[in-house]
Amino acid sequence: MAALTQNKSILSWLDEKVDLLKPEKIVWIDGSEEQLEALRKEACESGEILKLNEDLLPGCYYHRTAPNDVARVEDRTLICSKKEEDAGPTNHWMDPEKAYKMLYDIARDAYKGRTMYVIPYSMGPVGSPLAKVGIEITDSIYVVLNMAIMTRVGKKVMDVLGDSNDWVRGMHCKCNVDPENRWICQFPEDNTIISVNSAYGGNVLLGKKCFALRIASYQGKNEGWQAEHMLILGIENPKGEVKYICAAFPSACGKTNLAMLIPPEGYRAKGYKVWCVGDDISWIRKGEDGRLYAINPENGFFGVAPGTNEKSNPNALASTKKGTIFTNVALNLDNNTVWWEGLDKNPPVNAEEWTGIKTNGVEWKAEGKNLAHPNSRFTAPAVNCPCISSEFENPQGVPISAFVFGGRRAKLAPLVYQSRDWNHGVFVGSIMASETTAAAAGAVGVVRRDPMAMLPFCGYNMGDYWKHWIEIGETLDPEKAPKIFNVNWFRKDDEGNFMWPGFGDNLRVLEWILKRCDGEVDAQETAIGYLPYAKDINIEGLEGEVSLESLESILDVDKDLWAKEAEGIAEFYAKFGDKLPKELAAELETLKANLK
Ligand code: GTP
Ligand code: SPV
Ligand code: MN
After folding, report:
1. Which residues in 290-307 are b (16+ Cβ under 10 Å) and which e?
2. Rounded-to-integer distance, Cα 298 and Cα 207, Å
3. 140-153: pLDDT as tens digits
4. 78, 319, 396, 567: least CB-packed within 10 angstroms?
5. Cβ 75 vs Cβ 456: under 8 Å
């Protein structure tokens, strides 16, 4: 098949990879529906995917990964910079020369008898000044079909790249999905990603975490912009004005849900609307007017299925009703549709659970077992989302009024607080901690530090990343800089119940945040920053769920607990040695002094 480009840097890179991988055939992904449809048919015939009920879920497909390959693998995700110090204490590192050799030895001849798919893709609207181009080669049709939803693919991308060498090299080999030889390697200094022995989302859709966060965060540091694990949403007030917020929460901690929230009834009646620009990743750059602008580099949602339902997130559910690929959910054999925990209260009786065991779903649940994997996901086109923003394709992005950090903390972190200024806000992001989730292999529910929700995604030394945040702040007029906040939807009472209803009701907190940005509401200064007066969070309509007293208790700052927290922060900071920005060390001293 003829190449879709004459770009020499691409053609010579592909020649080398053909020599290494020995594909039987090469197929360029041109972005046409015709080609994608032929690939879907082929993957259905081989059993790689299964077509779902065309009446109920038109254009939707089902896929299972190997049971040992269901989440990101952080221990096997490496940053391969020349110097170990440049990967920093929070990343796993390998010398690039050693890593290339190891990976090429694993990958040699991996495409023998198989097809090499070449996917040209753009992260961000094609041709946008904030967008960047990548090429992923893969031997998996599932990867091609997912990339075609999650990114903009095809010839038009090669046309805008022209002869440029500014593109990210991505090589994926499924191999035999051997967990002992599974590696997800980023070479930030070479714009290169190599992923072997996996077929799970975040490990193999190389445009997503590997490029748009790990490689892009490094590019951003060198080029003066930021790549963040942040959703982008627009809030339209009754006057029709829209303000945008970027929010960083760790994996499976509520970004997709917040990005598409449905306002509570009282807000809808007044005319409030929420628009989704993105649910996972933001690329952020200063605009000509001195404000920060964000684009969503993705073109779809790779969302957590369990817990998504008509009440918690109707917009996400609606997004999955056509043209969607479901991975590791359960199959309803009666009508060839899908099911997951929390979709509704009726698990299918005639079911296949996520690994393919035929079972009576009701009995299976009664035994306390899951039908869908806790990290099962949907890959849905962004255009399907009923509340997709009219600015989604805007090549310049949207202006950001506030940054919001947040984690999953049963104790300690209050519902919301505001930083005193930019550097204090960077401190607040840097001290984030959250209970681990099923999005990564390993234990679930353990509190760990996850600065800016970037722990698994920062492509360089986290100390330098913090410095980059501080330097961005230095270039901004404080009047125009986004205000920085922290939220926690996950506080629990002594019986283990969530103290805040969350989901759509989180708009009540965002309203306070925007009022703070506009100087429309007072706040109380505490040891950790500005907290709302309970009376200033609107709880109308939450009678029986939240009272002024319960709100006060989710807004408290327990000085003893925070003093312990400060010790934990000091321990974490100590890992960074002289890479810890002095501004953050000073913020920690201020916190300690405030707690005395
Ligand atoms: P990634 O795609 O992994 O980056 O995750 P995400 O941050 O987009 O997570 P998502 O929105 O899919 O949330 C995952 C889990 O958080 C689900 O189990 C939700 O039910 C739960 N969740 C989301 N928002 C809230 C909330 O406001 N309150 C509570 N209690 N749970 C929430
Ligand atoms: C996450 O884990 O934060 C995700 C899913 O968004 S993955 O693409 O697997 O990284
Ligand atoms: Mn994510």
Report:
1. ebbbbbbbbbbbbbbbbb
2. 8
3. 999 999 999 999 99
4. 567
5. no
pLDDT in tens, 47-85: 999 999 999 999 999 999 999 999 999 999 999 999 999
* Lookup: tokens for 437: 């989730």
Cβ 406 vs Cβ 338: under 8 Å = no
Query: What residues are neighbours of ligand 3 (ion), with CB under 5 Å?
Result: 251, 280
How far apart are alpha carbons 72 and 85 in whole angstroms? Answer: 24
Quote the tokens at residue 19: 């020599």
Q: Which amino acid is at 592?
A: K
Which ligand 2 atom lies nearest to the CA of residue 280?
A: 6
Residue closest via CA to ligand 2's atom 3 equals 251
Cα separation, 325 vs 415, in Å, equals 35
Is residue 246 within a helix (H) or strand (E), and if so which, with residue range? strand 242-248
CA 194: distance to chain centroid? 20
Q: Find the ligand nearest to 72 CA.
A: 2
Q: Considering only CA atoms, which residue is closest to atom 11 of ligand 1?
A: 254
Cα 470 to ligand 3 centroid, rounded to whole Å: 24
Alpha-carbon gap, residue 506 to 500, rounded angstroms: 9
Q: 337, 271, 336, 340: which is closest to 303 by C-alpha?
A: 340
d(CA 360, CA 373): 17
Burial of 382 (0-12, 13-18, 19+ CB in 10 A): buried
Which pLDDT score is estimated for 1?
72
**CA-wise closest residue to 545 among 512, 513, 502:** 502
- Is 320 in contact with 32 (CB distance < 8 Å)? no
User: Which residues neighbour 198 within 8 Å (Cβ) at sequence distance 6 or greater?
Assistant: 69, 73, 174, 177, 182, 184, 204
Go through the domains of the chain in sequence order and give each one's CATH number. 8-48+73-224 (3.40.449.10), 228-298+390-595 (3.90.228.20), 301-384 (2.170.8.10)
Residue with tokens 């408290």: 556
Q: Which of 208, 251, 304, 457 is the pocket-test mutation for ligand 1 (most atoms within 8 Å of CB)?
A: 304
Using CA atoms, how far residue 197 sits from 7, 66, 96, 142, in Å, is 29, 11, 19, 14
pLDDT value of residue 499: 96
Q: What is the pLDDT of residues 89-119, one digit of tens each?
A: 999 999 999 999 999 999 999 999 999 999 9
Catalytic center residues: 253
Question: Closest Cα partner for 372 from 338, 419, 349, 417?
Answer: 338
107, 176, 188, 245: CA torsion to nearest 10: 160
Strands 242-248 and 230-236: antiparallel
Supply the residue whose CA is at minimum distance from atom 20 of ligand 1.
307
Cα 491 to middle of ligand 1, angstroms: 14
How much is the pTM? 0.98
CB 390 within 8 A of CB 464: no
- Model pLDDT for residues 267-280, shown as the tens digit of each residue: 999 999 999 999 99
Q: Are 292 and 482 in contact (CB under 8 A)?
A: yes
Number of H helices, E strands in the chain: 18, 31
Q: Whose CA is nearest to atom 5 of ligand 2?
A: 202
- Reduced to 3 states (helix: H, G, I; strand: E, B; else coil), residue 383 is helix
